[in-house]
Design brief:
Blueprint: H1 9-17, E1 23-25, E2 29-34, E3 44-49, H2 55-66, E4 74-76, H3 84-93, E5 97-98, H4 101-106, H5 108-121
């Protein structure tokens, strides 16, 4: 789901009605990148911000979707860490799955171990 909207539940419900098995929240948030370097021809461009900076926004959208009775499977993807606290917060607000793509690339067995620890502590 895109976070570049004010209300995420309606489009998420439309996806579920159309047959989606799960909803992945959220993608990058639109932003502007600027450079003062002379070698950059167009010194400003629309880009996206992601990572820990947008986590509070992601948690808000997850909470809103998880509170709706028809939203059974909400997922946070693109997560950057396998620490217990970082993975526990999305579960507290209602996500059923946390996908740490970077973790799977860097240390797949560590990501599996972290998932097991989160399940035990939750």
């Amino acid at each position: 789901m895109t976070p570049n909207i004010t209300q995420i539940v309606e489009p998420a419900l439309a996806a579920v009605s159309a047959g989606a098995d799960a909803i992945s929240a959220i993608n990058t948030i639109k932003s502007v990148t600027m450079s003062e370097r002379a070698e950059v021809s167009d010194r400003r461009t629309v880009s996206g911000i992601s990572g820990r900076a947008v986590k509070p926004i992601a948690l808000r959208f997850i909470l809103e979707m998880a509170q709706h009775p028809q939203m059974k499977r909400v997922q946070l993807s693109g997560h950057q860490t396998i620490s217990f606290d970082e993975n526990r917060q999305p579960h507290i607000v209602g996500t059923k799955c946390v996908g740490c793509h970077l973790c799977h690339l860097v240390c797949p067995t560590g990501a599996i171990g972290a998932t097991k620890r989160v399940k035990k502590r939750s």
